[in-house]
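Agenda item 2: adenosine-5'-diphosphate complex prediction
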Amino acid sequence: MTSANQEPAKVVFNGISKSFGRKGESLRVLEDINLEVQDGEFICLLGPSGCGKSTLLNIVAGFEESDAGSVTIDGEIVAGPNPQRVFVFQEYGIFPWASVWDNVALGLRHLSEQERAKIVEATISMVGLSGFEAAYPMELSGGMKQRVEVARALAVSPDVIYMDEPFGALDSLTRLGMRAEIVRIWQQEKKTILFVTHDVDESIQLADRIVVLTERPGRIADIVEVGLEHPRDLGSGEYGAIKNRLYDLLGVAHTI
Ligand SMILES: Nc1ncnc2c1ncn2[C@@H]1O[C@H](COP(=O)(O)OP(=O)(O)O)[C@@H](O)[C@H]1O
Ligand SMILES: [Mg+2]
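Presented output:
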């Protein structure tokens, strides 16, 4: 990924390693992670449960410190969280005591009322929740709550979005719908997205490139370029070939 006319990478992971101490013992979680993410790229970090995906995302987002190595974004070392870069959590990230409108408006208190209203309205419309502005989370389905969570993140106009298994709490049909939504929004907004998942299909449906991590300690097993246009045909031969490749990398049998 180093051609002469290429833009400098947006996010660079330089030799990230991390261990957690436990009663005198040390648990090695991440080992020498090196990766360059281009501006506007959709990257999935795929790996088995417990391999260090969330730890890695927390390090990139500045919530957690690495033991070795560093992350740079736009050439600057990440030393802590930055309000221009947001985390999308599972549906419990939103405030139950606030309406849809207020949940989305929370990060915009520094703006004038008029500017805030414009952004909140546009973002709620973008995630397909127009008409539900006054509703409270308890009145919404899981998928709708997750749309509020996505709107809350988008409203602050972030340049990088971190998503840690954001659709994990949704039923499988809602999850499929949310994947299509997030691809549509990503195509429209051109944000850089780092998306953690342990779901092989999810990674192929979403990513430009899939970074496959090994079991703990997480190392990069390989980076798989998806190279399929959206919307992606889940029944195509290319899709199946990528899926088999990912299963091989993860050391999982293709057939059951
Ligand atoms: N704060 C912590 N203290 C001690 N161990 C941790 C901590 N956070 C994560 N771990 C351990 O690190 C390993 C990787 O965790 P995590 O990054 O959450 O994996 P994943 O998201 O891939 O499932 C797990 O074994 C987990 O128990
Ligand atoms: Mg995790």
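Discussion summary: The mean pLDDT is 93.
Owner for follow-up: CH.
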